[in-house]
Design brief:
By secondary structure, this protein is mostly helical. The chain contains 8 helices and no strands. Helix 2 runs antiparallel to helix 3 and helix 2 (about 45-90) packs parallel to helix 5 (about 150-185). The radius of gyration is 22 Å and the shape is globular.
């Protein structure tokens, strides 16, 4: 029996893997704390940093907002129609609108917005940071007395978070408008009943959970890809295992946020 396959060797390997896993999470938390301090520091908003942050905010959001809004509107139309027809066939039409708001606005759209922001904004931004490190630009900035975290990472994390928040906010508003038009049509007669239903769903506790959920999802998809890139050893070729590990961590945190949201809303 080889040392690795023996029980002591297997336990040592398991302990080493668990230690590396915990150390990776600790570095991610430490990076999040550093970026929070930098975001709250007035010196992070000097002229050069402001221009870089504004550029990333504009490019990251405008490239995703229109496409995601159109896509979410089309999907919302299909889902709303299915829910309305199904509820009407079972004689539950009075609950159809509330179900639409709960399923689409509370659950599906924030999750879809976070994933879309990750694919279109934060993962490409993290690839830019990886290319900067591999090409020596990271060390060059440090040698010039500039903080790479402040100059390169902070604007991208802020832009990714803002992109996820904007996608979720705009798509939720559009979905609420589409839901009203699907149920009542182009008339103001159902506005009072509609606002009463939406207000019944968005109570104080649900509204707080909803806002925290969108915020944490945005922070997760913005931070995790870049954290995995910064945690990896710089190479000329992309470190596929580190990027994959970062994606796994991102999806794990998203699942935890979704589970906590469901528990807070329905238990």
């Amino acid at each position: 029996m080889s040392p690795i396959t023996s029980p002591p060797g297997a336990l040592a390997e398991l302990a080493r893997t668990a230690g590396q896993w915990l150390l990776g999470w600790w570095r991610t938390v430490h990076l999040a704390a550093l970026l929070t301090v930098l975001a709250l520091s007035p010196s992070s908003y000097a002229a050069d940093n402001r221009r870089a942050m504004a550029r990333h905010l504009y490019l990251g959001t405008t490239q995703s907002l229109l496409w995601f809004t159109v896509l979410s509107t089309l999907i919302s139309l299909v889902v709303i129609r299915i829910v309305l027809v199904t509820a009407l066939s079972y004689g539950l039409s009075q609950y159809a609108l509330e179900m639409v708001v709960r399923v689409l606005v509370l659950e599906l759209i924030p999750l879809a917005a976070a994933l879309f922001a990750a694919l279109r904004c934060t993962i490409p931004l993290s690839a830019e940071v990886a290319a900067l490190r591999a090409g020596g630009g990271w060390d060059e900035l440090a040698a010039q007395g500039n903080d790479p975290l402040r100059r390169e990472v902070l604007p991208r994390v802020v832009a990714g978070t803002f992109c996820a928040l904007m996608l979720a906010a705009v798509s939720c508003v559009v979905t609420l408008v589409v839901a009203y038009l699907s149920v009542y049509g182009f008339t103001a007669a159902g506005f009072a009943s509609y606002t009463h239903t939406v207000g019944h769903v968005f109570g104080p506790a649900v509204s707080l959970i909803f806002l925290l959920k969108i915020l944490f999802l945005g922070l997760t998809v913005a931070l995790m890809p870049i954290a995995s890139v910064l945690d990896a050893v710089p190479r000329r070729r992309p470190n596929t295992s580190a990027e994959l590990q970062g994606l796994v961590r991102m999806f794990l945190v998203i699942v935890i946020i979704e589970a906590a949201s469901l528990v807070g809303n329905y238990y």
